[in-house]
Amino acid sequence: MGAKKIVVISAGLGTPSSSRLLADQLADASVRRAAELGIETQVVVYELRDLAVDIANNFVTGYAAPKLADAIEAVEQADALIAVSPVFSASYSGLFKSFFDLLDNKALDSKPVLLGVTGGSERHSMVIDFAMRPLFSYLRARIMPTAVFAAPMDWGRGAEGEAALAGSLTSRIERAAAELASELTEAPAEASAPKIATRPEEKSFEELLFGLTGRN
């Protein structure tokens, strides 16, 4: 069995970006949790800000430039997806939505998806349930029960001044990552042909009618 491919989509616009920081933490935890289950993983990260012009051009021309086409194909072929967006106007960013609008409607069908959101305050956490989950439910993805929201107060500073995680955020990340890793252990269900009831002996309409009325 080859390595399971986890594709990470980050819609952060800044450098550095809190969305990218959260995406990296979710990916690292998912890899670690998968390894604990004996699952080898491969992670590929796409920052949508690098693809913004190509995404806009695709809507106008109907053509995906090579880098954008690679990102779309990677998402479609992924075994699992981690999707992180900042909050803009009480929802996910327009860039985030535009990228997923370019996917085939069946691209995420039954695909495990871990959701992450970053915002300026804890009040924005409602975006997860009122915007993110409905979008991926429409796309028929298997959404992890635990989604992770990170506000500025969830980030601290490490000994060297680098961004560090607060305890509660760490626990949410670990729980969400464990759920995603568990999904990677499950083999996709094989589609079975529907069972159709058939009569032992096919009869014509006239024969059936005679059986009911006793006359032709």
TrEMBL record:
Keyword Lipid metabolism: no
Keywords assigned: Flavoprotein, FMN, Oxidoreductase
Presence of keyword Cytoplasm: no
InterPro entries linked: CE1759_FMN_reduct (IPR023932), Flavoprotein-like_sf (IPR029039), FMN_Rdtase-like_dom (IPR005025), NAD(P)H-dep_FMN_reductase (IPR051814)
Domain called NADPH-dependent FMN reductase-like: residue spans: 5-155
The organism's place on the tree of life at top rank: Bacteria
Protein name: FMN reductase
Organism the protein comes from: Sinomonas terrae
